[in-house]
Structure formats: structure tokens, C-alpha cells
Amino acid sequence: IPVDVSPSAIEYEGRPADMAIIRDITERKKAENAIMHAKLVAETANQSKSEFLANISHELKTPLNSIIGFSDVICNESHGSLNEYQRKYMSNVLSNGKHLLNIINDILSISKIEAGKMELHMNEFFVSDTINEIKELMEPIASVKNIDMSYGIDIGMPAIKADMIKFKQIVYNLVNNAIKFSYQGGAVKVGGNISDDFMHISVKDHGIGISAKDQENLFYPFFQVESSATRSYGGTGLGLSIVKKFVEIHGGEIWVDSEIGKGSTFTFTMPTAPLNSNLQDISISFD
Ligand code: ADP
Questions:
Q1: pLDDT (tens digit per residue) in 86-95
Q2: Are strands 263-271 and 198-205 parallel, antiparallel or unpaired?
Q3: 239: Cβ below 6 Å to ligand 1?
Q4: pLDDT value for 12
Q5: Helix, strand, coil distribution of the chain in percent, nearest 5
Q6: With the C-alpha atoms ordered 58, 62, 64, 69, is the resulting torsion angle positive or negative?
Q7: Whose CA is nearest to atom 21 of ligand 1?
């Protein structure tokens, strides 16, 4: 057996005086080196994957934005010059273009998160104002399925310090899912309050629900509950993993309570004024 007798590969268990036990740890060293090498390879691969995703997403966004922009102009400013079919096909191009842009933006967010390039821009804002904006955005989406939307936000809630854009994206994703996985004519309730310096926001639906087993995987990227029923809802399976990351970088937590066929409640917390210690390894700016 070849024995590496360099000092780093020999362990001395000295004592007494001039006696020592020399143990061959060549195999252990080899294993340690192999693990270190594998970790390095994995890190490099992860980094280049994230860079590749970020680059390709940027390249895709430029032509896509012009497809969306021009089809929007054709749909909305050429009244009378399009026949019924042309208008229908053009609005199809527009809505699919927007859908593709959402997917690309999700992939960009994930690659930023994985590359550790997520930034927080902290602002002071009232949760009730932000929820009101989301309410307006959601109304047309909810009305298509005749969903009864209600909002129980504690009006005494003081202003909080957080990244408002990310906060909006969290609530938007949760409410959008709640509507998407509700039955026709269902009900969705958004609740919010503050206790012990933490804000609690919950989004409750009475939709299809999620099994205990699927709840374990829900927050992993690209996870979608496997059944022909849910696949027909579309989506990328990225929303909840982004939501979880956004919540966690603020120093909060997210969880779900759900029962198949009865509905789901997603709840997340966030400190009302995060401390720097909650926000390690993140580039932060206070606006
Ligand atoms: P997407 O909605 O784009 O598929 P998400 O990450 O937001 O991606 O959600 C992942 C999966 O979790 C969904 O595909 C769905 O199977 C399940 N899910 C999320 N929210 C709900 C909900 N409110 N009710 C039932 N299932 C849900």
C-alpha cells in the first residue's frame, strides 16, 4: 500500500516519551480531497449555470419586449383596421408574450438568488396601501372566475421597513395562486396584522388544496403538484421558491396549512424593521 508520509498525511499520537503511533490516513486524505474537489466543481457549475441563465434571460427579454410593445400597439390603437380574427390572434400574441416575460423574469430572479446577487432596497411603507394596489390588480383576474375577494388588514398597522417591490411580489404570487387554484365562484381572503414586531400576512383560499406529501416540496424551484388537473393550470413552479427566498432574506418565515379539496392558507411573517443581523450576505440599501 503506498503510504504518504508527508507530515500532513501522518497522525502522531505521541506519549510515552519516545514512542509514537503512526497511523496511515492516506485513504482518509484522499476522500477529503475528493470531497473538496467535488464541492469546488459543484460551486463552479452552479455559478456558471446562474451566469448562463442571467445572460440568456437578458438576451431573450430584448426581442420579447418589442413583440409585447408592438402587439400592444396593434391591439389597442388600430381600432377598425383589424378584423375580428386579426384582433383575436394579435391579443393572443400579446398575452402569450406577457406570459413568457413572466417566466423569464422568474428565471432571472432564481438565478440572482442562486448566484447570491439578490439586493434589498428597503423603504418605509404602509402594508394597507400596498395591499390596496394588489387588490386593484387582482380584481379583473378574480372576476373571471367569479371569486369573492376579501381583505382583513388591521387598519391600525404602523408603517413597516421592507423592500416594497419584493413585498408586493410575494403577496401578488400568493393571491394569484389562491385564485388560480380556487374553484369557480370560490372565496379568497387576505389577512394581515402585526404582533411582537412581526407582520403576519395570510392568504386563504377554499380551492383544490395540497396533500401533506406535496406540501413538503412546495417551496422547491420548478415543483408543481403532479396531476393532470394541476398541470392544466399552467405556471412555471418557480413562484413559491422565489416567494420563500424573498421572505427569508427579510428575516421572515413562510408556511402552508392545507387540506385536499378544502383549500389552503399560506402565511408569512416579516420583521417590521429588520435588523442588519437578519440580513447577512445581502446587498442592502435604505431608500
Ligand atoms: P406555479 O403556480 O407557477 O406552478 P408555484 O411555485 O407558485 O408555481 O406553485 C407551485 C405549485 O404548488 C403549483 O403548481 C401548485 O401545484 C401548488 N400550489 C401553489 N399554491 C397553491 C394553492 N393555493 N392551492 C393549491 N395548490 C397550490
A1: 888 999 899 8
A2: antiparallel
A3: yes
A4: 53
A5: 50, 20, 30
A6: positive
A7: 177
